[in-house]
Structure formats: structure tokens, C-alpha cells
Amino acid sequence: MDRIGEPRVALPSLSRRRFVTGVAAGAALLGIPASASNAVPRANPTPQTLRGNQFDLHVNYQPVNFTGRERTAVATNGSVPGPILRWKEGETVTLNVTNHLAHDTSIHWHGIILPTGMDGVPGLSFNGIRPGETFTYQFELNQSGTYWYHSHSDFQEQQGHYGSIVIDPAEPDPVACDRDYVVMLSDWSDESPHDIYAKLKKEGHYYNRRRRTAGDLWDEIRQKGVAQTWQDRKMWNEMRMSDRDISDVTGYTYTYLMNGQTPDGNWMAQFKRGEKVRLRFINGSAMSIFDIRIPGLKMTVVASDGQNIEPVTVDEFRIGVAETYDVVVEPVDDRAYTLFAQTIDRSGFARGTLTPHPELCAEVPAMDYAPVLTHRDMGMDHSGHNMGGMSGMDHSGHDMGSMSGMDHSGHDMGSMSGMDRSQHAGMQSGNAGQYSLHGGRPELGGMQGVWFTDNLGRAGHGSSSPIVHLPSEYRYGVDMRSEMPGNGLNDPGIGLRDHDTRYGRRVLTYADIRNLTPTLDRREPTRELQLHLTGNMHRYMWSMDGIKFNDAEPLMLKYGERIRITLVNDTMMTHPIHLHGMWSELETGDSEYIPRKHTIIVQPGSKISYLVTADAYGRWAYHCHLLYHMPGMFREVRVV
Amino acid sequence: MNRKTLLALTLAAPLAHAAEESHTHTHSMQDDEHAAHQHMEHGYPAPQEASAPAAPNLRHAPNEPDHVMDHEVLLTKVTIDQLEAREDDGSALEGSVWFGGDKHKAWFKTEVERAEGETEKALSRTTKKELQALYSRAIAPYWDLQMGVRHDFELESDSRNWGVLALNGLAPYFFEVDTSLFVGEDGDTALRLEAEYELLFTQQWILSPEIEVNFFGQNTPETHTGSGLSDIEAGLRLRYEFTPQFAPYIGVNYEKKFGNSADFARDDGEATSETTWVIGLHAWF
Questions:
Q1: Which residues pair with A153 in a beta bridge?
Q2: How many CB atoms are located within 10 Å of the residue A252 CB?
Q3: Partner-chain contact B47 A638, CB within 8 Å
Q4: Chain B residue with minimal CA distance to A418?
Q5: Domain A410-639, what architecture?
Q6: pLDDT tens digits along A28-62
Q7: Which CATH architecture has domain A49-173?
Q8: Which residue, A21, A54, A199, A412, is the most exposed by fewest CB within 10 angstroms?
């Protein structure tokens, strides 16, 4: 255990690259008191906690310094993240949001069920907040738990415009704890978000610093021989895809923050031995999915996306962008623990310390191996083969070799390449499935996607409908289609699948989640929408069913109806999908206790199903919460 | 995208589509305000437009807000593939500029080669200067179809114009390919095939072999090009990416003439093949 002087001050001499990627560099610096450095940068303002039901929020520019260089952030009430808003269930809150920026802004209350006009999405809910104007949000709180808020304008979220919300329940909280901390994770870049987006559009792999090299190829040839290596690389080469393409934006530009503190800044939370500590993890990142663990402590997950669940004890869990998880830990030793949040691609981490004394710090663990994508992540799940333990076995792509026993015929590869497949491929499978474009509600319009009305199965048990790729998926904007998507429910996700066998860590999956209280809407779904998440990494285009938001019609729902949405991930990325205004009731296999979420991770090449009760009139946003996927992978949902 | 690009856009006729396609205009700091007040051109199609029976209860979802979130951006990419000095005081520039959206782009390509110090060994005294102005349209996940004009700036003979039809993209096994068919004003034809590969030694040291092959449909003594396979240019460049956008390199360039083109060169007492060391810069922004 190290003793540290002033943990909140980052060392300016440290370059950003070493800072975010170099674990050793970070650990070595823990021992150095910050006073040794001459030019100590001003500490960034930390978020306040605001309580009550009347709030004045000011969106303003704020100089910040996370990397040794001063930059201008978009802050709320002068801090990044913005203030923690502590509300009370049953109350009506009024929030006067004043825009001090030179551009429009907005605040979306992520996960809060409210009228459409209060949802804060420019163009759908309202016209945005113009410079100098104040917009008053007012809504009643009919829920409790951990949520967050962020700008829905431009790319302001990446610039710091986000904060956390905690709603205390009206009834006694079923989760007992002695201490209660918000742990807001986020990603910061000194680059402007517009530059990041432009770079991705011009060179999709710009931020990937783990591309396959000649050395990797040589290692593979030595292990498996030329013929086998050629065979294993063949599909990737023919598809022009990289099995190292995990995150679009990485630690190459990002510094990962925990409650606005860099890893060296080391955010700290105190406890006394024997206390129950509730940690409310929120992923407020623009683009970063985190894997969270606290070496030495079991975590009992008690809530997901603000909703109480049947407690599950795990060692590690993945948190998609915009998700929230509440965990309770009970440290029995008088020692410090590291809150360790490594990114999905292991290009960096956020870090904080849970400690009985401010001087005590725990060791920062090394990041785990970086994952490599497999056939499974392309939607080529051969049921019966357990590939869970085969992903990302090591850095040299060895896992591809271990899968070589399976016969991926040239036909399979052809159908994945998308170059020359005609539209009838989609139509054929469609005939088998008896789908329509409106799901028996022609009065709501058509051309919205693939809707099924027959053989929907029971609520809570997911979809058994056939996979249909619409003709719109066979265009230049789509580089892959999952022919045999696996079920994403039991999948901990890429890079985590073997953590159980490899490290003995129990990793949370969606299949573990049961609502704490019985399902409220016990109706069966009357129609099922199958929507495909699509994209083209080379062109950096994202869409649903191959259609970008600009070209898409709204998805029309009838007020009061209960439907199922099945998302099919036709990409090799992990997409967190967020539906505004209504709960996404994740079908985890138990009709009685269906958990309610607002953001759902769709694993690469997989599908997942959830139920939606259209109980909120109006226009709602429905999109991937990865910020730079949003321009295309976005739909309007209209409840009429 | 900045104002300059917008201006350029208005000047570029082929890009009318792109401007139409894109509902949003800019994300740069100085222009955001302007953009934010731009109203969306098309708005949302009301459901009744899509199907005859009117959607009920539209009062619950009126088309009220007068603008939507900014979405597609028009971008400009300037690529300097090769800016290099060659042995014997030669130099070369190969680059491109595109601007537009996902589907429609205006695309300019240029190749300039100079052999200043004319030694006996020099391949040709003619300096190669060409500019292509193309409309580029995405037709498949990895391919753009491009069409437009090419202008050759000739110093010692008349400048020439060609029509261009090109297929540009990424072939399986990660070969960057540019195939161009040229048709001259007087019915002359030419075909050019270019392919490039990138081999990463590390994330920053990248070896890039490339090859260009030219065919002509006729003999043209003024330009020293003969019908059939005319010439091959092959290069091997090792660059170091200080950033992905800025990478100096060293390499070797090999050129060889064939058939009638070779004969033209021999008649002029020039060599038919040449190998030169090069040093240069690869960059984009």
C-alpha cells in the first residue's frame, strides 16, 4: 500500500499517452507527492450534491485540466460531472436550465419516465435551449434509484455535460446500507468531439492502437503453420474486417474519469470496517464500455438501471454506456480497496479507492488481456459448440486456431461479405417467418421494419422468430449481417467469457437479472419488432436495418399496446441501446420478475429481446448510446 | 466542416446531391450556432404520407419541434499519399481531396512527377502532371464508383482531356485498389490499375508495397506511350507514423516500360527501366 500526498492533483509532466495506457507509469507515480512538481495545475471543480425539488442549473464553459493541458469543458454549475441531483420519489421537481453557451443545449433525464415535452431531446421533445435562454423542466417522479442526465445536443456529452441523479424511494429502501456513493464513470479527450468524429469518418481504425502486425502473423504461423494460419485469417481478410476492432475510440485519446477524477487523481470514498457501502455505478461515457471489479471484495448487485433487482453476488460486471448498476460491498478488513474500471478493449482504466483512511491506497491491478473477436461475434454462432471459453485466449489470435475444427464453408463467408448477395436472401427467410412491415397495424403505416404477429411465445422468454434481413441491409452502408446470431442473454461479453475459468471471477450476465418485485404489466406481447443494428466500420456509418436516422420513418406504436423488440446485432461492436420514455423490460427467462431497464447491451453478432408497454404518448428517441454511432443508429418512436 | 468548405461545396456542381442528402451542415465551433438554427429541410414524413389510412391521435405526437438534432456531417479529407524527393533531383506528389457525405462525394486526384536534372538515365523528359475531378458514389460496402474528367498538363505538347470511369475501394485481403478507365477526346483509351497494401511491423512502422500498371489502346508518340502494356511502377515505402496523420517515409521506386512505350524510350536514347530511392511524407487531414 502506498501513501500518497495530494491524491487529487494530476502530474502535469506526464504525457497523456503514458498516462492512460501505462499502468506501470501510473502505479509508480502514486508514491510521488504532487508538491514535487512545480507547475501544479488548478484542481478541477468537483460536483456538489443538490437536494430538494427546485433547481437552477447553469450550463457553462469551464476550464478543466485532466491531462496536464488546459481545455474548455461544457460543465453544469461549473463542474464536470455536473452536480449530483438528489430527488425524492413522489415529488414534482422543477429545474430551470440556463444556457450560457454560444450554442444550443439541452438536458435529457436519462431513464426518468416523464412526459415527452420534458424529455429534453431537441427535435423530438422540444426545440432545445437557445443561447442565453432558460428552459424550465417540471415533472413528477414515480420511480426511485440511480439515473443520470446529459446533453442531447451536438456532442456536448463528450465535452463534460453530464451528471448523476439519485432518487430516494418514497417507501423504505429495500437496500440497507451505511454509506452511499455515486461512482460516475466517463471518458475525457483533449480533442474536440467533432475532430474525433471526423477522424473516425476518415479512417475508422484511427484510435485502434492494437491492429494486427507482422509479428502477430509470425507468431501465429509458428504456432499453427502457414496453411492453418492462412485458413484462419481467410475469413477476416475476405470480409476486410479486423478481429482487433473492439472500441472505436480508445485510451489513445481518452483519459478515463471516476467522478471527474483521473486515475492518478484517484477519487476516494471512505468507509469503516464492517459497514455496508452502496456504490451507484453510472457509465456516463461517450464511447467507453467498462468492466468493473474491486479486487478483494465481492459485489452484490442490487439494482440495474435504477430498478431494484434480486441481489446477485459477482466479482465483476460490464457496464455499457448509459447503464447504471448499484452494488453493495461489505469490506471486513481495515484496508483500502481499488475500484477498478477497465475499458472493454483494455486501452485504459478509471480508478478510485475505497478506503478506511484517506492516506491508505490499494494496489492498482494490471489490466486483463485484450480481447480478440471470434466467429461468434460475427453472428456465426454454431449452437452446440460452447465457444464461451474460447474467446480471446491470448494476444496472438490463438483462439482462432482453436476454432478451426469447425467448418466455415465458403458459402457462409460469401453470405457475410455482402458484396454480391441479392435481396432475395432476406426475402426467402422472410417468407418462412410470415412477417409484415407493420405487424397487423396498417393504420400506423408501414415500412418500419420486420414485424411478427404469430408464435410470439410467452412474455419474459424472448423471441423465437426467424432472423430476417431486409433488402435495405444489402447496401453500401452495411458490411456484415449475422446469419446465426446467438442469444446475448447468457453472454458476459467479449473479453469476459473466460474470466470465470481463467481467474475464478464470477461475471454478471443479463441472465442473472430478476426484478425484485413482480412484473407489473402481465400481458403477452401482441406483436414483435425485429430491428437490426447495422453499420460499416470502414465508412464509419451506423444505422438500423441499413437505414440511417435521416432516411428513416418513425416507428409507430399504438398507445397502450405491449410489444416485443428483438434487436439483432449485425455488427461486431457492443451496442448499448436506449429507448426514451418507456421501460425496456428485458426478457431474462422469468415471466414473473421481468427486470426493467432503460439501456440494453446488444452483444456483437447476437440478439436480445425485451418488452415495451407503449404507455407514453409522443415522440421518443431510440438509439445506440455510443455517441458517435448516434447520428445514424437512431430511430424516432412515436406512440399515438 | 468550415465555411471554406461550404463555399467550395456551392461551387462544386456534382455535389448538389451531397448537399441535398445531408440535413445538417456543420459542427465547427464558429458555425454551430448558425447550424443549430438551420431548419431541417425535409422534416419527418408524417405517417399519413407513408400509407393511406391516417394515423389516429396525432395530437399526441404533433410535428412540432422546428429542428432536429444535427446528424450527417459533410467532411473534407485531404490526403497526401506521397510527397517525395527522388534520386537524381526528381520529385513526385500523389494525393487526393474529397468532400461530401457518406454516399456522394466530390473527389479530386492528382499526380505530379518531375525529373529535373535530366541525366542520360532519366526515364523521360516529360513531366507528368495530371488532375482528375470526379463525382464519387458509394455503391457497395467497400467500393465507390467514380466518374469525371482528367486533365493532363503537358509542357511540350498539347494538354489533353480524358473522361474517367473508376472503381475505387478496398478489395478482399485489404488491398486498396483504384482502377480507372480513361477515354480521350479523340477516342484514345487508357487503363490504369493501382493497388496498395499495408503491412504493420508495429503500430507505427508500416511497410507499404504498391503497384501501378498502365495500358493504352493506341500509340501516342508525343507522350511516348505505346499501345498495350505500357509501363509498370512499383514502390516499397516504409513509413513511421508519428500520428496516423503524419508519417515520413523512405523507400524505393521502380519503373519499367514495355512494348511500344519501351521502343519510344529507346528511340530517344532513354533507359526503359529505373530504380530510385525516395524519401517523403505521407499525411492526411
A1: none
A2: 21
A3: yes
A4: B141
A5: Sandwich (2.60)
A6: 333 333 333 344 456 788 999 999 999 999 999 99
A7: Sandwich (2.60)
A8: A54
